[in-house]
Amino acid sequence: MSGETHSRATSIHQCFNLIYVYLYHTGCLGCKIKNGKELYCKKWYRLYSYIYRSIYLTGLIGGFLYKIYDEELNEAMMGILTPVVKVILTFECFICPISYVEVTFYMDWYCDKYLKLANTLQSLDEQLKMNFPSIQWNYHKSTRKYNPMTVGIYGFYSIVSTIYIFHIAHCRCGWFSSTILSLCYACVTGAPAFAGFLFIGNMDMLRLRFRLIRKLLQLQFVNKHTKSRHMHAEDVAKFKFLIVTLNQVFCVVSGSGLFHDFAITTSLGYLLCSKALDTKAKWYEYVFVSLFMVPRIYKVLTTSIYGYTTQKERKNCSREFVKIESNFKKSTIIRQPLEDFLHWSMHNNYSIKVGKILNCNLSLIFLTLNSVVNYILIYIQLQFQQNSIVNRFMNNVELITNDAEVL
């Protein structure tokens, strides 16, 4: 995308333009940008999203079943896999469409709420701009951050997913079915991932606005300018209410995405460890499996970090009001509305959630990585037990054969 396109960005919606395009064409979110200032949805857009979903799910499930029921393709794909790897592959084929259906269903169900969230955020920006004309939102900077990121991650993930499917297929004769399967797999697994990136982007926007209000309060506090402090309290309250809407739209989406990332990372981590125990494994197999894990790990890290920084800025913004109240104890005009706001804020301490109960902060990194390591160890233990059973069976067969020869 050219710099001219970036310079035309005049709203928050344009910052996520390519994410919206990708989610629209993967059947996840049927909305478009109108005149660069408003996000809207029509019934036809939702109908198109249903068609996209049907195509991708049919291609994924149909392609996999075709490879299973074709004897040659089945032997090429399943014949060389260990039972544990077959279980992992079956689990991935089971959880992948379920996660996709769940995320697309919730994004469609809460589409109106998300439109309200995005348009309210844009209107609050315009209101702050009217009250403080010196504010420069610099939407083009956010556009330069999110649009190239979308293109890069989509291209990287599509290429790696295609190689992954062809690597598992182990058969050049089924290249057409492998191509269809890889494209559908990239869309079905990519849609929940990009819904998660949209969640990250909205957290980032809230973070920047909490920080802006905090800096405005600091300037007014230093200069003893008290004219619009009550208005800032209303602004903070409105942005805090947006956290509630953000949780309603994305809590299930982010929770489902986190579970899917955990499942894929665990499976690939086990494959990486099993290849380390295999003397016949090639060096490029390690590189490939590692590259396939990168987008998932990156999303978990960015979700945790942006959730932590957003909630940190929210708390810092509230602390500025406490400082102002302590500095203007003798001014009833200033102190009374501030006390009302702080009392309201104390009883409405909203936090960003992943799922229904998990706070979106740095503890998610430890929780995810700890769970991944534990399940990888369980998989390795199962593999060792399987190898032990196979070795005992082969030894018993050899003993029986030797006894038969002696007799």
Describe the structure.
- It comes from Lucilia cuprina (Green bottle fly).
- This is Putative gustatory receptor 47b.
- Keywords: Membrane, Receptor, Transmembrane, Transmembrane helix.
- The chain crosses the membrane at residues 50-68, 88-107, 151-169, 175-201, 362-382.
- With 407 residues, the protein is mainly alpha-helical.
- The chain has one domain (3-401).
- Helices cover 82% and strands 2% of the residues.
- It is built from 13 helices and 4 strands.
- It has helices at 3-7, 12-15, 17-25, 43-69, 71-78, 83-109, 111-131, 139-169, 175-223, 229-277, 283-327, 332-347, 363-406, and strands at 32-34, 38-40, 353-354, 358-359.
- The strands form 2 sheets. Strands 1-2 form a two-stranded antiparallel sheet. A two-stranded antiparallel ribbon has the order 3-4.
- Helix 10 runs parallel beside helix 13.
- The chain is elongated and about 100 Å long.
List keywords for this structure.
two-stranded antiparallel sheet, 4 strands, two-stranded antiparallel ribbon, Putative gustatory receptor 47b, transmembrane, mainly alpha, disordered N terminus, membrane, 407 residues, receptor
User: How many β-strands, per DSSP?
Assistant: 4
Largest sheet: 2 strands, antiparallel
Major sheet: arrangement of strands: 1-2
Q: Would you list the SSEs in sequence order as H and E? A: HHHEEHHHHHHHHHEEH
Cα Rg: 26 Å
* Low-pLDDT segments, ≥5 res: 1-6
N/C terminus separation: 80 Å
- Provide mean pLDDT, rounded: 81
How large is the share of residues in beta strands? Answer: under 5%
Shape, per Cα inertia axes: elongated
Total helices: the number is 13
Keywords: Membrane, Receptor, Transmembrane, Transmembrane helix
Protein name: Putative gustatory receptor 47b
